[in-house]
Amino acid sequence: MRLREDLENAASEILHSRRPLLTHLNADTSWVLTLPHPSPRERFLFNILIDPWFQTSQVDYFSWFSKQWHVIPSSVQTVTELNECLGTLEAIFRSRHGSPSTHESVKANSNIDLVVISHEFTDHCNRKTLREIASTTPVYATKAAARLISSWRYFHHVYSIATFSNEKDDWKHVSEAGIPSWLSITRIISNKDAMSFHSAILITFDIMSNTEGSSTEGLVYTPHGINADDLKTLAVASPRINVLALLHGLHDIRISRRQLNLGAHNALRAQRISGSRYWLSTHDEVKGAGGLVNYFMRRKIWTIEDVLKEEERRNEKLGIGSPLADIRDINFANLESGESLLLR
Q1: Would you state the pLDDT for residue 174?
Q2: pLDDT band with cut points at 50, 70 and 90 for residue 170
Q3: pLDDT at residue 318 above 70?
Q4: Which residues contact 282 (CB under 8 A, 6 or more apart)?
Q5: Residue 248 pLDDT > 50
């Protein structure tokens, strides 16, 4: 299995660098963020599962209205497979630290520490996949998604993600209980977007909290895109947040006149405003689709090279030049299903 091989190959790098590992679980927008635990006791790694949807079709409301399915198979087909892969990674850490636990005993436990859900739609909040996760796993979801998940009466702990605010004395304190003190999960929303469709999940962490000069790092996850200007709030956050990665798609997707995915031009601006070290594309799988929504859907596919050339052309036309046109200082990655990236 490619995912297991990638994780095993990444083990030594994580061990020596103590840096986060981000893994794309399908070609769409399911991820797992693996963080080295700053104070390991029972576990050496902390795994955050984001928007899991592995197999079967997803339907919103009715199949005649909107139905989609993966064209590219997910790197894992079940949560059990994912848990075994994460267990293998944990077991490698244990063995190199002289822990007596066996690979099999680690795999048998749940290696998913918490789940993050960005939207209530079934390609983000997929009931079949979610119900494969241990019911004791805490779930942090946007308000509508949390309400939906709670209605299933399956998970013991479902939290609504708090709104990020830089006006607080310490924005860390708005995050829900049950999260380790070195981790925070909040949501950036726009006052111009009444439904908060174009919003972002902000996952912040200080995995070097036991070392001198440590700082808070953050990952901005926005599968449909967020208006780039809404990320300006990060620049004045206290404590300061160093944005490590931005997850924002390239494709410009519309249904009739409504913009669904804001696309590459907004992403490029968001990367500049946030100052993220990495930009990874997400939610860009061209899935199989049927139903009324698909009939009206229009997709403009951009590559990173195309959007940079277009930005350069636009700015040259205005006679102002543009640092946006320089690809050399953009750490862009388009990870395939099962690929991982160590965030240095």
Answers
A1: 60
A2: low
A3: no
A4: 24, 28, 29, 31, 221, 223, 247, 248, 249
A5: yes
Per-residue CA distances from 242 to 110, 204, 206 (Å): 30, 9, 10
Q: What is the pLDDT of residue 319?
A: 46
C-beta separation of 19 from 343 below 8 A:
yes
* 236, burial (CB in 10 Å: exposed 0-12, middle 13-18, buried 19+): exposed
Q: Are strands 288-290 and 67-69 parallel, antiparallel or unpaired?
A: antiparallel
Cβ-proximal residues to 42 (8 Å cutoff; 6+ apart), any chain:
none
- Burial of residue 192 (CB within 10 Å: 0-12, 13-18, 19+) is exposed
3-class SS of residue 54? coil
SS3 for 250-295, per residue? CCEEEECCEEEEEHHHHHHHHHHHHCCCEEECCCCCCCEEECHHHH
Question: How do beta strands 45-50 and 58-59 pair?
Answer: unpaired
Distance CA 206, CA 69 (A): 37
Residue count (the chain): 344
φ, ψ of residue 7 to 5 degrees: the values are: -65, -40
State the chain's mean pLDDT as an integer.
86
